[in-house]
Amino acid sequence: MNDIPGRPGAPLLSVTGLSAGYGEMPVLRDVSLEVNRAEIVALVGSNGAGKTTLLRALSRIIPCTGRIVFGELDLMPMTPDEAFGAGLVQVPEGRQLFDRMTVEDNLLMGAYRRTDKAAIAQDMERMYGLFPRLGERRRQLAGSMSGGEQQMCAMARGLMARPQLLMIDEMSLGLAPVVVEQLMQVLATIRGEGVTVLLVEQDVHLALSGADRGYVMETGTIVQGGPAGELIDDPGVRKAYLGL
Ligand code: ATP
Q: What pLDDT score does 1 carry?
């Protein structure tokens, strides 16, 4: 694991004045947010608000301006591979598994930068403990599994990298509530083990219910942020996102 110094609760990710877009089209404007160690932070907002674009900028997949500090590292000059190596790992929307590879091989892909064979084997068993369904299906082709199982596989693949920060894009999309509940429990478990989570969701109630803090994004800017419980009770959030 990458050992970024810091105590629980100290900022792990600090984003300041980040702007990004696609070609000439601006999408994100002056985004600032913070994710502290071992917390679950929800980034919520409607379809098209710019949430995925922010994750792409943080993963250094698209260019951006502003400041991104991760632990004590400046992410701005990094390539996606370097950011991944620093411990910032994204579980993409739509899973993007290697469909024709087994669950086991997908998990190994998550550990591709690691050389500690014994620890990799231990982590695989840990994943099968976190997600027993994956253990039962370890030799099954990933593309042949249900949507929920594929999401588990994508999350386990991300965890195999031993991330400092796991950024999960639309974890719940298209999944049955009972499966989503299991996944939320896994997030609480890994948070307890020191993994920090940035959860990007259109399902505002779900994300805020399982998070410590949250940010609301609208048309490329952060319009609100605070403790998740306060955001759920906020009249503006309730009206705009919870239909209440
Ligand atoms: P969703 O939940 O639907 O993914 P989102 O909040 O993640 O929504 P983004 O996917 O970041 O939103 O999209 C923000 C804006 O950027 C949208 O207007 C979208 O059309 C645009 N956009 C996204 N990807 C690209 C791309 N590759 N090229 C050009 N424009 C893009």
A: 42
CA of 161 to the centre of ligand 1 (A): 26
CA–CA gap between residue 198 and residue 211 (Å, rounded): 9
Among residues 65, 118, 96, 224, the alpha carbon closest in space to that of 170 is found at: 96
DSSP string, 21-43: EETTEEEEEEEEEEEETT-EEEE
Check: CB of residue 13 under 8 Å from CB of residue 68.
Answer: yes
Whether 11 and 72 have beta carbons less than 8 Å apart is answered as no
pLDDT digit string, tens, across residues 14-49: 999 999 999 989 999 999 999 999 999 999 998 899
Testing ligand 1's pocket by substitution, the residue of 24, 29, 52 carrying the most ligand atoms inside 8 A of its CB is: 52
Supply the pTM of this predicted model. Answer: 0.92
**218 CA distance to ligand 1 centroid (A)?**
12
Distance of CA 32 from the midpoint of ligand 1 (Å) = 19
Tell me which of 3.30.830.10, 3.40.50.300, 1.10.260.40, 2.40.50.150 is the CATH number of domain 13-87+163-241.
3.40.50.300
Give the atom of ligand 1 at the shortest distance from the alpha carbon of 45: 6
Instruction: State which ligand 1 atom lies nearest to the alpha carbon of 217.
Output: 6
Compute the distance from residue 238 Cα to the ligand 1 centre, in Å: 24
135 phi, psi to nearest 5 deg? -60, -45
Kindly give the number of the ligand 1 atom that is closest to the alpha carbon of 56: 11
CB under 6 Å to ligand 1: residues? 22, 25, 27, 45, 47-53, 170, 202
Query: Residue ranges of the domains in the chain?
Result: 13-87+163-241
